[in-house]
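Journal club prep — side note

Before the paper discussion, L.F. wants everyone to see what a predicted structure for a comparable chain looks like in token form. Sequence:
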Amino acid sequence: MNALAIRRLQTDILILGAGGAGLFAALHAHQADPSLAITVAVKGLLGKCGCTRMVQGGYNVALAAGDSVERHFMDTVEGGSWLPDQELVWTLVTGAIERVRELENELGCFFDRNADGTIHQKAFAGQTFDRTVHKGDLTGIEIMNRLSEAVWARGIGRLEEHRAHALIKSADGAAIAGALLIDMRTGEYVFVSARAVLLATGGGPTMYRFHTPSGDKSCDGLALALAAGLPLRDMEMVQFHPTGLLAGPDTRMTGTVLEEGLRGAGGYLLDGAGRRFMIDVDPRAERATRDIVSRAIFAEMRAGRTTPHGGVYLSMAHLGAENVRRQFKGMVERCADCGFDLADKVEVVPTAHYLMGGVEFTPDGTTELSGLFVAGEDAGGVHGANRLGGNGVANSTVFGGIAGTTMAGWVARAGEFRTPDAAALDAAVAGAEIFFAARDGTGDLESIRERLHAAMWDDAGIVRDAAGLARADTALAVLLVQLEAYAPPPNCRERAFNLHWHDWLNLKSLVVVSRIIVCAARTRENSRGAHYRADFPDPGDIARSTYTRVRLREGNLACDAVPVRFTRVRPGESLLAA
């Protein structure tokens, strides 16, 4: 095969990513106009990969008597330290009601129910009402199974094991023309021309030593968006889930989330000596928001009050073993696979879980690049400084569905196939071809990965300061140079199913996005939500809040502080009646 040959495909709507956002977008676009050619491109297999499938906890929605969308809105805005875009939040909390009904009544999801037949909603941290709809502790699998079945039944096109490598603009630079993919099965380059493109590849902050997403998640979409010139907001806001399983260094199970419902049900966090420390940190104790609990655990770790593997204990024993095994069957079984008994106590550590930041977008899914839409974890502005547990899958499905409807309407009004920028296509191919260039390289990918993990965990993680962020920035610049100079072993030069090549591409995306995180973190000289600066611990003037906006300027990262618009409620006010 000619290494530079590019296969060409055409579709009306191209969806990059097949999680909750991507599949809902496909279904809603098809519903709006069944005549459209819709293609979903996914790095893995449809329905079997991505972050939505890994969701344990559930789906936040104001359904019960006594709850309201206004209450859900206030919890989300206050939990996000007044940084969320309030129009996005309002779209989320109102749209979640429609979407959860659609999941249950049209797609066939079976959610847990109360004895009277109403949907059961459990407690999650940071919320003033128990509003998290769930299917045991395997909610994501239930949702993804039903979504996948619906996509297959409608004959929507699929490009499985195709990674998105570049967003390609039109020759005049005014709009999106399509995307360059790599067929992982053959190593072939594929350019898909599309009238509209949805970026919904998901986040996956696997640049940290402890992380929850699977190893194939590497923030590709955010790296693509930056390269295409799009602005990214709130990128310093990396959420650490407080309770990742700490199973030791010899298993990939370390970092796996033990969901928030465990603490919502009454689980305790204990230091190595068995002391329940959260009651001294926050009046909500273990049900405080994720940022507060993560920092409290990190403080215990720094003080040396740890368990044998260096974390803390999550204790469930006082709730009764039978009760725990009934409520949290999936997690009990996963822990048992590693030799741990969740119904007693297990070791946990804060684990990088979710990126609150992402591409700037409007409530209908549009971005500043004509024809490019965004949804899910690739999109920024919904969660601000801190995402409430249960708001993630709601975010993906609500905005994914909206984006699908919007794209179908946009294609009918203004969508057209555009001539791609040939130079951009050539440059994108050349960037991937560096891996195969004949040269003498040094180092190995595992060493680069370990140094990336160390730089981000130690200097750009749960607690940050100027000196640490400067060290991280320097270390990341070195890693990027080393990746460019890397030469694979002679037995890793075949293209078909070359996982070494794709691991290299993954690391490039992770280092690029890590540099964005550090750039934004250095700009924010106050502490909000997930971003804590030990040298600037004060949250700053909430009434004059700003969010960070990072983009490329003349090839370099630039970060600006942009005032938050309080469009529905200002700090100190509430939508709830007094």
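L.F.'s comment for the group: The two ends are 70 Å apart (CA to CA). Keep this in mind when we get to the figures.
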